[in-house]
Design goal:
Strand order of the largest sheet: 2-3-1-4-11-5
Largest sheet: 6 strands, mixed
Order of helices and strands: EHEEHEHEEEHEHEHEEHH
Number of helices: 8
Radius of gyration: 19 Å
Bound molecules: 1-O-pyrophosphono-5-O-phosphono-alpha-D-ribofuranose
Shape: elongated
Length: 211
């Protein structure tokens, strides 16, 4: 039997996903060692391999078949836009992709003014403003702490993830428009879905029972 390889977005997503896998009898003891520097973990009995990677790399590993299955947020799937199948909404890691800024920026979103939009998600931001709102904007790519941008005058608004809304509130910003809901998803390599059809479909149906 061939190994089935899982790529998990490291951090909270991977932890919750492994808890979910344990409920359906898929476990990996090696992974529970918090001090390990190992990058890949094996369950010999079930012929499964697991590795953790930066969230934005998960769709890449899955598209190229280095991983058969990926667990990653919908935000990353949308931003990376890789060729893969999104097969299951895991219903955790729920949050929203939003346009945020100071209340005073709300009117700028629907008039003809040219605005700057800072985001870790330039593709999602462009798609929203160009294709949904038909508004030309200047999208500025940032890599983190995006809420800073409107505060220091880099941009009028941001496109970012809002979970509890605490970061916005504590910085005098608010949700101006909601783009879409987000959550953790299971994605599958397109060839693996055919070649390992039975094993993968079993995992999907078992997961559906515990979601
Ligand atoms: C994310 C997101 C927001 C924050 C939202 O950032 O980009 O900044 O969480 O959460 P909240 O609504 O519960 O406050 P993350 O912690 O991933 O780090 P980053 O600032 O480096 O993007």
């Amino acid at each position: 039997m061939k190994y089935l390889t899982f790529a998990l977005a490291k951090g909270r997503l991977a932890k919750t996903a492994m808890e979910m896998f344990e409920k359906i009898g898929i476990e990996c003891k090696e992974m529970q060692d918090k001090d390990t520097r190992k990058l890949i973990f094996v369950n010999e009995e079930l012929k499964l391999k697991f590795f953790l990677s930066k969230a934005s790399d998960v769709p890449t590993y899955v598209e190229y078949g280095a991983a058969d299955i990926g667990i990653v947020g919908k935000d990353t799937i949308m931003e990376e836009d890789r060729k893969l199948y999104e097969v299951l909404d895991l219903d955790f890691g729920k949050c929203k992709m939003c346009v945020c800024g100071p209340a005073s920026a709300k009117e700028l979103l629907n008039d003809g003014s040219m605005i700057r939009v800072a985001s870790k998600y330039p593709k999602i931001a462009k798609d929203y403003f160009y294709n949904k709102k038909h508004k030309t904007v200047d999208v500025i790519k940032l890599n983190g702490s995006v809420e800073l941008a409107p505060i220091v005058g880099l941009s009028e608004v941001i496109v970012d993830i809002v979970e509890t809304g605490t970061t916005l509130r504590e910085n005098g910003l608010e949700v101006l428009e909601e783009i879409c809901p987000l959550s953790a998803r299971m994605v599958v390599n397109q060839v693996s879905m055919k070649m390992e059809d039975e094993r993968i479909k079993k995992i999907i149906s078992d997961l559906q029972k515990v979601i």
